[in-house]
Structure formats: C-alpha cells, structure tokens
Specification:
alpha+beta; 6 helices; globular; 282 residues; four-stranded antiparallel beta sheet; Helicase, Ruva Protein, domain 3; N-terminal domain of MutM-like DNA repair proteins; 2 domains; DNA-binding
DNA sequence: CTCGTCCCCTGGGAGC
DNA sequence: TGCTCCCAGGGGACGA
C-alpha cells in the first residue's frame, strides 16, 4: 500500500495520539510480521513516552524517551487505526482473522492498532542516535520533499544509471519514498518514458521531473493519500488521490494531457506494472 | 557494482 | 455460488 504520501498521511493522523503520550501497555499478538519482533519488544515499549513521530522514506519513526526509536514499515497492506474508545480485545467479524497484530494502549485511554493482512510490514527498535547508521537507513536516499531536493540533486542521483527510469526512481537508495503509483504519475506529468535510461536525462528533463515528483507527492498528501484497497487514514477515512490518477491503473483510458489523444498503456518492468502514455511520454 | 527475477503473504476481482 | 487464476501500494535474497 503505502508510499510516501500514505505514510505521511498516517504520521499526521497518529501524531495527536502518539506525541507526548505514554505507552501504558503494548501487545504483540504474534511473534513476527515480515521479520521477528525485536527481543523484549513489548517490555521495551511499555512505560515509555513518545517524544516525536517522524517519517523517513516509507518508515514511521517514534522516538521514545528510552533513547530508542520504534521504526515501523507498513509493507503493502499495513494500516493503523486510532480508537479513542477501545472497541474490545479480539473482535473478529464473522470469525475471520482480524489481522490486528500490534496494539498500543496509551495512558490517555487511546488505543492504536496496527493491522496488516499480508504481514509485509515490520517493526524494530533502534537506538535513536545510531538510526542513520542502521542498515535499514544507512543507504536511503534523499527525501523528495526535503530542502535538499532539486533538479541538480535529482540529476546527481540518476547520473550513471543504465537502469530504466522507472526502476531507478523506485530505488530507495536514490530517492526515498517513491513507489509504483507515484513514479508512474510523476513520469507522466513530466512526459518522460519509464523506459528511458535513467542516466540519459537532459538538464531540462530532470528539471521537469523534479518538479513533477514534488507536485504529485504534495497533491497526494493533500488528498489523504490513495486508497486502492487497504489504505485508510487513521480515523478510517479513505484517501481520495486515486481519483486523480492520470495513468496508474488506467490502461486503455485516454491520456489526460491536452491535445495528446494517446491511450494509457500497461507494461511490465522489474516484475511490476508500469502505466504510461506512449504518445506523449518520451 | 548493477540489473532482473523470484519470493514472502493474504484477499479481492475476473472469468468460467 | 464456487472454483481457479491473476494481480496488488514493498523490498530482500539471489544469480547473471
């Protein structure tokens, strides 16, 4: 599910519950998600106050007053929901598995539940001062909404890459937080072919692309992210940026660019769908 | 190194 | 209805 805009939407939704709050009780309802939970996971959470809730790439980072940071990745299907009035312990509609895997009960009485049917998400506890050097974060590239991101920085990140543009933009070591949806959308916005060799862009093209990436991400955050099936804002609301997709999941539809007249195509790159307009993206 | 392929897992939708 | 097959927002482990 979640790319940068969805994770940022979740961060904003969770902040009122997390920041400044103390975790009175935590619960992991299984030993692992994609990876095992860290040693003594629950014990290291209980009694801790959350000092800040940040985002880096597609990770949520809750800084605890113990000097550790709870790093959370939502994988493909992870979501959080906030229950001001906890609904109950093991509510399984129609007996189906709930996929509620982690529960945070705060002193305030608020409950935050992490749900993840596919369990591609994971959580870890990392010493805060060493976070940037941790293997999960050491190689992650620049934030596209950060102050250091511009056409020159993008050009530098793509320089020398012989990979298709699509694959290079998905590579978290070059740029952080982009996924399949927003890469497709940004490339269409910038009228660049996903098949272009990443290192071959001219300066005018990296300028257009940098602008498109920022614009698409900001618009998606504004819309509360995109809900294809799983993504919810933490209050249960759907995101609605999917209604603004120009190409993603729109194979056969008309290209929205003025006077283009092209049709959206689907191709497979690196095992994943790429949506683009062959008429105006070059 | 850098690239492409496969795989982890569950559920939803299409097609028969 | 109920199969079966295909596909899905991420990214780590491989092998070439």
């Amino acid at each position: 599910m979640p790319e940068l805009p969805e994770v940022e939407t979740v961060r904003r939704g969770l902040s009122p519950s997390f920041v400044g709050a103390r975790i009175a009780r935590a619960e992991a309802r299984r030993p692992n998600l994609r990876f095992p939970f860290p040693e003594r996971f629950v014990a290291r959470l209980e009694g801790r106050r959350v000092q800040d809730l940040r985002r880096r790439a597609k990770y949520l980072l809750a800084d605890l007053d113990s000097g550790e940071t709870l790093a959370m990745h939502l994988g493909m299907s992870g979501s959080f929901r906030v229950e001001e009035q906890p609904v109950g312990q093991f509510y399984h509609p129609r007996g189906k598995p709930s996929h509620d895997h982690v529960v945070f009960d705060f002193e305030s009485g608020a409950r935050v539940v992490y749900n993840d049917p596919r369990r591609f998400g994971f959580m870890d506890l990392i010493e805060t001062v060493r976070l940037d050097k941790h293997p999960l974060f050491a190689d992650i590239g620049m934030e596209p909404l950060g102050p250091e991101f511009n056409a020159a920085a993008l050009a530098a990140a793509l320089e020398g890459s012989r990979a298709p543009l699509k694959a290079a933009l998905l590579d978290q070591r070059r740029i952080a937080g982009l996924g399949n949806i927003y890469v497709c959308e940004a490339l269409h916005d910038a009228r660049l072919s996903p098949m272009r060799e990443a290192g071959s862009l001219k300066r005018s093209e990296t300028t257009k692309l940098a602008r498109a990436i920022k614009q698409v991400l900001e618009a998606a955050i504004e819309a509360g992210g995109s809900t294809l099936r799983d993504h919810r804002q933490t209050d249960g609301q759907l995101g609605y940026f999917q209604h603004n997709f120009a190409v993603y999941d729109r194979e056969g539809a008309a290209c929205g660019h003025t006077r283009c007249g092209g049709i959206v195509s689907r191709a497979v790159q690196a095992g994943r769908s790429t949506f683009y307009c062959g008429a105006c993206q070059s």
